[in-house]
Specification:
Radius of gyration: 23 Å
Strand content: 5-15%
CATH superfamily of the largest domain: P-loop containing nucleotide triphosphate hydrolases
CATH topology of the largest domain: Rossmann fold
CATH class of the largest domain: Alpha Beta
Protein name: Polyphosphate kinase 2 family protein
Number of helices: 15
Number of strands: 5
Organism: Streptomyces vinaceus
Domain Polyphosphate kinase-2-related: 45-270
Number of domains: 2
Keywords: Kinase, Transferase
Shape: globular
Distance between the termini: 26 Å
InterPro entries: P-loop_NTPase, Polyphosphate_phosphotransfera, PPK2-rel_1, PPK2-related
Order of helices and strands: HHHEHEHHEHHHEHHHEHHH
Bound molecules: adenosine-5'-triphosphate, magnesium ion
Length: 313
Amino acid sequence: MSDKRAERIADFIEPLRVRPGAKVHLERDFDPRFKAGLKKRDGPELLRTGVSLLAEYQERLAAQDTYGVVLCLQALDAGGKDGTIRHVMSGVNPQGVRVNSFKVPSAEELDHDYLWRYAKRLPARGEIAIFNRSHYEEVLVVRVHPENLIRQKLPEGSFGPDIWDRRYREINRWERYLTDNGFKVVKIFLNLSKEEQRTRFLKRIDLPEKNWKFSAADVRERRRWDDYQQAFSEMLSATSTRWAPWYVVPADRKWFARICAAAVLAHTLMEIDPQYPEVGEEARKDLLVTRRALEREAPAGAHADPYTARHSP
Ligand code: ATP
Ligand code: MG
């Protein structure tokens, strides 16, 4: 693997990363229209490069059994989570990737602690789990609509005004625990502007084949835009850590958001640098014995080892 590729990707995503400890003010610090000087026509080629890099690294990740990856995707409605997942994962082996979408919690989920349902969907070693919405809803929608908190059946005295700081702390520690135990957590926020959200909602109304995607609830949530911006800003400030950083991906241009998301995931995998397991001396000897046995099974007229015959010059 050339270090150049890794360096280029690290440089590309650096402006998107939320520095641990930084006090984020979303609207001031991150421009949803930023495109790093790229042109839309550069998009397909760059995405292809990113996707093939991901395919290469995901294959290596799947071959080892030390590390797994959790990619958390957060966005406001019409932010492009679904399209991002579809495009970014288009080249990877579906056996190694699981997408988990988190909706309004069920009765069973509410009967457990708030991280339970997310813990249940964690990847195995070798896998990538994509969280389409994630445990961060617990400090976003639940914060903007505190009635959600009532439904969570918390003990008396445990939901005072300090609950959000406590949740940030609990989430950071949980992610630290996962990281220390081989599960890398990486987090992407698709940062959409209010005007682009309006445009996308209108498109969903204007095009009959998009109507199913439109929900009146989304427009209700839009009225709480400023509260969400505030909740996102505080959450980003409190939970971008050295071990599990946040990346704020400019989302007004879908083609650019997809390149960024692919780059963030590729960077994460490159940092892990998964290696194909090496076969030991003894196992190698066993393989050679088996090989000889298989060669002896060759029917009359067939090459002893058709693979070698086909591939040697
Ligand atoms: P899409 O609309 O593209 O299909 P989506 O992720 O918006 O995808 P929906 O079924 O529309 O899916 O919405 C899921 C809803 O569940 C969101 O409004 C979200 O805020 C809500 N939700 C997710 N987690 C929680 C939670 N822990 N508590 C309360 N509401 C939650
Ligand atoms: Mg929705």
